[in-house]
Every structure is written in C-alpha cells, then in structure tokens.
Design goal:
amino-acid biosynthesis, FAD binding, 8 strands, FAD, alpha/beta, methionine biosynthesis, 311 residues, binds flavin-adenine dinucleotide
Length: 311
C-alpha cells in the first residue's frame, strides 16, 4: 500500500464506530401474525425481549391477499392491551371494499390503535397482477386518503430504494411516494436493501423531488440467503454477490450464520448512521436476537420501567 492509501484507510476509521454511538437512535420492530401456538410463543417471547428497548412503535403485517386479517387484528390488540408499546397495524387494499376497511379502522381506533402502515398489498397468487376490489382502493395513496378521512391516525407508507417492480420508472415511483405523503402519511419505511449507498441515493433523490418526510431505512437482518433471495426477487431488492460469498458453506452451521448476519447488518447500520440515519425499522421475522444485538451496537439499552405508555 502507498502512504496515500494508508492515510485514506485511516480516514475511513474516523467514521463513527460503534463505541462512539451516542444512543441517539430510534427504532421500530416489525412482526408478522403467528399461524400456530408455537409460532405465537416465539413471537411473544421476541416482543417481550425487544420491549425494554422502548421502540418508537412495533408493527404487525397483514398477509398477502388479506389472508391474516383476523390474526393481524388479534396480535395488534394484544400488544395494545398487554404491553406498553405503541402498535401500528399494517393494512392493505386487497380484496376489501372501502366500507369494510372503514369498519376495520373504526375498530382499531376504538381498541386504542393510533398508527396504520398503509399499503396497496399484493394479490395472493404469485405472478398475478393487482386488481382492486370493485368498491375498493386502487393504490396505497387512495387508501391513505381514505384512512385520514375516518380518524386522525398516524400513517406510514412503503418506499422502494431500488424502485417498486411494477413502477414505470424510479421517477414515477417517487412521484407515487409523494402522492402518499401528500394524502396524509407522515413517514416512509423502505423495503429492505443491502447497500447503504442505495439508501443514500434514494434519500437524495427524494430530497431533490421536494420530499421532506422521514424516510426510515427498513433493515432485514439476513441469516438465510436462499430464503431472502426468493423474497427479494418479488419485491425488487437486490442481493449483492458478496452476500452470497459471505454465507457460502454455512448452510449447516446456524451459529456461524447468525454471527455473520449480525456483522453484515451491523455494518450496514453503522454506515447508515454515519450518513445521518437516526431511525431504523427492523424486519424481525419474529426473532429477537439479531435485532436486539444490532440495537445494542447502535447504543440502545433497555429502559426498564420507563416504557413510553406506562407513564
Ligand atoms: P403503491 O404505493 O400503491 O404502489 C404500487 C405500484 O403502483 C408502484 O409501482 C407505484 O409506483 C405504482 N403506482 C401507484 N399509483 C400510481 C399512479 N397514480 N401512477 C403510476 N404508478 C402508480 N404487503 C402486504 O401484503 N402486507 C404487509 O403487511 C406489507 N407490509 C409492508 C411494509 C413495508 C415497509 C413495505 C416496504 C412493504 C410492505 N408490503 C406488505 C408489500 C407491499 O404491499 C407491496 O410492495 C405492494 O406491491 C405495493 O404496495 P405499496 O403500498 O407500495 O403500493
């Protein structure tokens, strides 16, 4: 290495390292509704583990085609009733009329839910194109406007740093994000991605398009690349080749896979922090360990007895 290269390498070390992180970070955690009692136990143990980290909110997804409707509602309600956490319910337009969605929203409001993650959703069958219910909403932007007309919910929406697969272009996708924010959403949560530069480019493009709402990076702590690849393909996220190489040969070594996953995800979060991100949304897949470890590295510590709503 030349002296110049060594000196540049030294400068790279001046980026904030974990030891310097001030704990000035907010996080949220996403869960999916459990299908079985056993899965329910895993979910609730994860919620209890992550709860002391005082997330800004926790959210519960809504299955493709609205398939988890009842389970989503039950999980969200239980979080509201049994924890001090702010719960956000994901809601999609799929297969539901405006009147049905209005009833769901009123029920949520009456149950104490104040935050909706508003999505168009995807059809249940793979490869099918989205078709709206005859009396329903055709896009997330329409749903946002509908929600805002029912009750004054806080509304978050989805954003796609690598562009939504159905979008005509990155520009039209960004125009769509703006429509969702103009319709009443106040926060965009991104699809997962694995390169910090991808996020920064998207954030810059959003800023250049006049979007000034919070854009929260969605973080997927990957420990199963094969499974993630299947999912990434459907939602337009790229799995970089280096990620395959990192997990090579670890199929039968889950402990090593977890350590590699923690390292890769922590490094992504550190870069995002260095680039100014102070809020992170974790796709937990209902497991607490990786998200907890990364939050710890980001300087977040349990605030026992200080849960937001306990006061
Ligand atoms: P929209 O914002 O409506 O966009 C859909 C597509 O249509 C985009 O390509 C957009 O550019 C285009 N579009 C919309 N309006 C226009 C217009 N007027 N002109 C031109 N183009 C337009 N799915 C679930 O089923 N359940 C969940 O719980 C769930 N949670 C999610 C959480 C997050 C944080 C994210 C990022 C995604 C989630 N999804 C979920 C996936 C989501 O439903 C799909 O990605 C879906 O295909 C698009 O939803 P959307 O809300 O982004 O749709």
């Amino acid at each position: 290495l030349t002296v110049k290269q060594l000196s540049e390498a030294r400068r790279a070390l001046d980026e904030p390292l974990f030891a310097d992180l001030a704990g000035d970070v907010d996080v949220s955690f996403e869960f999916f509704p459990p299908k079985t009692d056993r899965m329910g136990e895993t979910l609730w143990s994860s919620i209890r583990t992550l709860e002391p980290l005082s997330p800004r909110f926790v959210s519960v997804t809504y299955g493709a085609g609205g398939t988890t409707r009842e389970r989503t509602h039950a999980t969200v309600r239980r979080i509201v009733e049994e924890t001090g956490l702010d719960a956000a319910a994901h809601l999609t337009c799929v297969g539901a009329s405006r009147a049905e969605l209005e009833t769901i929203l009123r029920d949520y409001w009456d149950a104490g839910v104040r935050h909706i993650v508003a999505l168009r959703g995807d059809p249940q069958g793979q490869g099918e194109r989205y078709a709206s219910h005859p009396d329903g909403y055709s896009s997330a932007a329409d749903l946002v406007a509908g929600i805002a007309a029912v009750r004054p919910f806080e509304i978050s929406v989805a954003a796609y740093p690598e562009t939504h697969p159905e979008a005509h272009s990155a520009k039209t996708d960004l125009d769509n994000l703006r429509r969702k924010l103009d319709a009443g959403a106040t926060r965009a949560i991104t699809q997962f991605f694995f390169s910090a530069d991808t996020f920064f480019r998207f954030r810059d493009a959003a800023a250049a398009a006049g979007i000034d709402a919070e854009i929260v990076p969605g973080i997927l702590p990957v420990s199963n690349v094969a499974q993630t690849r299947k999912f990434a393909h459907m939602c337009g996220a790229q799995i970089p080749p280096w990620m395959d190489r990192l997990f090579e040969g670890l199929d039968d070594n889950p402990a090593a896979r977890q350590l590699v996953a923690a390292t890769v995800t922590a490094e992504l979060c550190r870069k995002l922090y260095a680039g100014g991100a102070r809020e992170f949304h974790f796709y937990t897949l209902n497991r607490a360990e990786l998200s907890y470890a990364i939050c710890h590295l980001l300087g977040i510590r349990p605030r026992l007895g200080e849960q937001k709503r306990a006061a």
